Amino acid sequence: xxxxxxxxxxxxxxxxxxxxxxxxxxxxxxxxxxxxxxxxxxxxxxxxxxxxxxxxxxxxxxxxxxxxxxxxxxxxxxxxxxxxxxxxxxxxxxxxxxxxxxxxxxxxxxxxxxxxxxxxxxxxxxxxxxxxxxxxxxxxxxxxxxxxxxxxxxxxxxxxxxxxxxxxxxxxxxxxxxxxxxxxxxxxxxxxxxxxxxxxxxxxxxxxxxxxxxxxxxxxxxxxxxxxxxxxxxxxxxxxxxxxxxxxxxxxxxxxxxxxxxxxxxxxxxxxxxxxxxxxxxxxxxxxxxxxxxxxxxxxxxxxxxxxxxxxxxxxxxxxxxxxxxxxxxxxxxxxxxxxxxxxxxxxxxxxxxxxxxxxxxxxxxxxxxxxxxxxxxxxxxxxxxxxxxxxxxxxxxxxxxxxxxxxxxxxxxxxxxxxxxxxxxxxxxxxxxxxxxxxxxxxxxxxxxxxxxxxxxxxxxxxxxxxxxxxxxxxxxxxxxxxxxxxxxxxxxxxxxxxxxxxxxxxxxxxxxxxxxxxxxxxxxxxxxxxxxxxxxxxxxxxxxxxxxxxxxxxxxxxxxxxxxxxxxxxxxxxxxxxxxxxxxxxxxxxxxxxxxxxxxxxxxxxxxxxxxxxxxxxxxxxxxxxxxxxxxxxxxxxxxxxxxxxxxxxxxxxxxxxxxxxxxxxxxxxxxxxxxxxxxxxxxxxxxxxxxxxxxxxx
Length: 701
Known about the structure:
Layout: H1 60-68, E1 73-78, H2 85-99, E2 104-109, H3 113-126, H4 139-148, E3 155-160, H5 165-169, E4 192-198, H6 201-208, E5 214-216, H7 222-233, H8 239-245, H9 250-258, H10 274-288, H11 290-299, E6 307-308, H12 309-313, H13 345-355, E7 360-361, E8 367-369, H14 372-384, H15 388-402, H16 411-422, H17 433-450, H18 454-472, H19 477-492, H20 496-514, H21 519-534, H22 538-555, H23 561-576, H24 580-598, H25 603-618, H26 622-640, H27 645-660, H28 664-681, H29 687-700
Parallel strand pairs: 1-4, 1-5, 2-3, 3-4
Antiparallel strand pairs: 6-8, 7-8
Helix pairs in contact: 3-4, 10-11, 10-14, 11-13, 11-15, 15-17, 16-17, 17-18, 17-19, 18-19, 19-20, 20-21, 21-22, 21-23, 22-23, 23-24, 24-25, 25-26, 25-27, 26-27, 27-28, 28-29
């Protein structure tokens, strides 16, 4: 066996020898014990300066102060990203620091687990916690213990941007801290308060334990926004100009909201562009629940207020509802007998969107609301990723399947959905969806016409007519239906030559396609006769109406609504020709039949009553006329609204009665109110407006 040789390296290495390794070398370093540090006096750790332009938003700061004054308080500011939650927290923290110098103020950014760990380390250093510099020091436990110790004085901890539940309740992967979630290190000690800012309502509830401790922060009220604008830019000489800046168009708003000018009072890793801030919430929702993000995408195309739950849940997603196409008489929908309500997933989607403050629900729980800028940011995200057209088409299909024709029986449904139809004007789709879009505009225009909202009906029906003409041809039933409805609007606006041109074109085509005595043809002939009547072309109107009336009685029946309409128009002609007895006889027949067919309160029945009352008025039968006009006017107000043209006509007629009864003051006041409303609704150049204004001037003289 060879002899083992030991090699020496001289005095500098004396005691060390090269040889076999008989054990491991202990390399653990033992640090000298920490020197005791004197605990500092309380001070504030607020990483952001105070905003000199801060605008106090109602009583939010008072609410925070009230809740934080309670023992072991927890309060959460909940709202959309960018609405000012952190700014409120900064202001409150500075107020505490200035007004309560014996209170510690700590700030922890809760965007990531690393930032939370960093925040706890900052607290440990600030209060000079013993043992914090040891390699295996459990910083969270040390801070937790210090916060729980009431001898350390009062403190408030701001947990900012706590938007991800996984940061506070997820595993940390830290052996030293036994993998306990960060949330378990937030004490409920009598001497401290925790204030949280978050977008997530569910997380806010988990952290505070009570809905009472959650304060919702919404977008600024206009008066607060104007105040902030003046502080930033100086006093505006014209408040209307400042208000207009707050209501810019969508494209300008997008550019402004995408601008990131930087803000010293925001965390360095957070974007100051509002669109970017809100799209972070959208992306987070999309990663956790795709169906909720899809629902938000669909809702972004509605008008922002009054989004009905039944429209969202009625058919489910990506399901094409069954419906009938254009008709010259009515446009009805087909019930295929299936139940298209979707399962509880819809409620879960809604719950997530509400938790992230992306939507709000009304007190009844059947309508939703979105902030306009949330809608804008969602649509911009869809546009950037090439999905805008997909959800736009889904919206158009859903609305077309939900919004019925403008007939009286559908008014309640139309009234609740009409704002959502109006926005469709700007959503022109491509391809085959154009016909569906035009159909929706047609029904919307029909309803607007029935409500006397001619300025809204006109662009709807014009676009519907143009779209159908290009896609289906000028002589298609859809195009002709749009033309005839558009002509009715032109008639109501006093644009009789334009209306006549369209009615004649539709009538001639219907005669060729359906025949002279077809109900569609007879209906258009009656409309054309009414156009002649408005222009006092009485003989032409009478000749055409008598032809229509005779054919309608044979084809449709004596009490058919189209027959009654022709009878009413013929009675109007008799009245203009001073044939009072013949006019009254027809009007009584129409009124009695309308009561049976439609009911006493139906608008067409009320118009029949108004026509009969007008005949009494022209004969000087004041009492008989007033007996009918007063209930007609009141019912019109209730059914159609105070500004509907039919209501205003009844007001004018009642004013004439009062004038003839010697009630000059009452008559003038009523006629003035009528003329003022007509000028606003119909325009100063409308025949009815000019007539009422002339009467007012005459009665004043």
